[in-house]
Amino acid sequence: LYQVINFRPNCFNIINVSSHFITFVQSSSKDLIVLRMVVMASPVSQVEYDDVVDDVGVSDNRNTTEPVAVLGAGLVGSLVASLLARRGYKVNLYEYRDDIRNLSAVQGRSINMTIASRGLQALERMGLKDVVLEHSIPIYARMIHKPDGTTQPLPYGAHGQCIFSIPRITINQVLLDAAQKYPNIDMHFNHKIRSYDHKKTEVVFEQRDGCSAAKAFSFVVGTDGSYSKTRQSFLKSTSFNFSQEYIDSLYLELVMPSNKDGSSKMEVNYLHVWPRGTFMLMGLPNLDKTWTMTLFGPKSIYDAFQTPEGVMDIFEQYFQDAIPLIGREAILESCVGCCGYPMVSVKCSPHVLNNTLLLGDAAHAMVPFYGEGMNCGFGDCLILDDLLEKYGNLEDALDQYSAARVDDVHAMCDLAIYNYSILSNKCNSPLFQLRKHVDNMLFQWFPSKWTPLDTSIRFETKLSYRQCVNNKVWQDSMMEHLFKGILLVIFTAVIANIFS
To answer: What's the predicted TM-score (pTM) here?
Structure first.
């Protein structure tokens, strides 16, 4: 903008300079258009912004006349609130819980989150990538714990690429801190959604004192999770399709403490997996050298957890090397009497009705076996931000959103379920491990022609999830023909040798 002003001085008149903005008008236009160039990276207060507007004597042309409600201040809700506020919208961010930044313990899921390239791309756009990575641990490979006690690493990428592990509460706190810096975001905690009417974009909130109040907004963004009240209102529409699937596996969490000297009990920078067919144990590292351990398995496993003997029988039979690492007492404390927690996969279409948008788990809850739930939700925010950049307003952006996103996230929901069989069973298979090595070798030789599924999902931001799936189908077909050709050559050679 500075160069434009200098090269076309007759078109622009600078009318105000402050510590944060250079304000100027386009004088060649019939309408007075106020333009501002930010000259300081730190956020400005509402008072400072309004002072600039008052100084030039024109009305504020931001989108403050279109109040937006974001329902849910979790990971996706906090991020999309900042993205909208950055574009000038007046945002009201609502959350049914207390502010998690003020709590010593948080109710709800605490499975560690894994951040990959798609999630980092969204954080980088908001200037939060480095802050989040400071609280994260790089994960370069899966470390497979075999039944005989031996281990084997399986790298995620072919060139030392890595994903990052971070506690859910930590990244949520970072995102809330970032959102709070915007003067046009108002945060409302302890506001439970009683009901929502998507036709009126009207929300009925219940506060801690039991009082209820209805509020209407120009636009509503539902980021209220897998059991979304916002999405529930869509079910009354005949143009809305919805499906959910509870998988035949439950989960519970345990904590592996650090050693007495503060060191880690396992090799850091790995996702440790004990695959045992229809169930598995998984561990992700924390910065304090502890490990968040998660047991995934069918109901039959948890039926055995009703007694201490049943719990230890399972661990001694299948996870014997994990017992001294977690500790017998810690295992019994976490497992005895636990029935496990369910996991649901949700698909719906469209993600937009009237002026209401569903993002994150409210639109596409997925099981955690690909570690892409948060990355996919952050990708939703990027798609919305790109559409706002293209069309300039929320109404037109929402008109295009479902077409740009629905099929893609449905593909990722399917991949997440598919990956459970990989983690719990196939990654122990020599054929699977051979295929991984072949994929990585082909990727090194032909990086533009052959990208393994894991690499394209976790480290490629230009390919959509659907394109990644289509590439996988094509690669499987090619490998099938290759192996058939090899078998045919071997068979022909054997027959020729017999007759000779």
So the answer is: 0.83
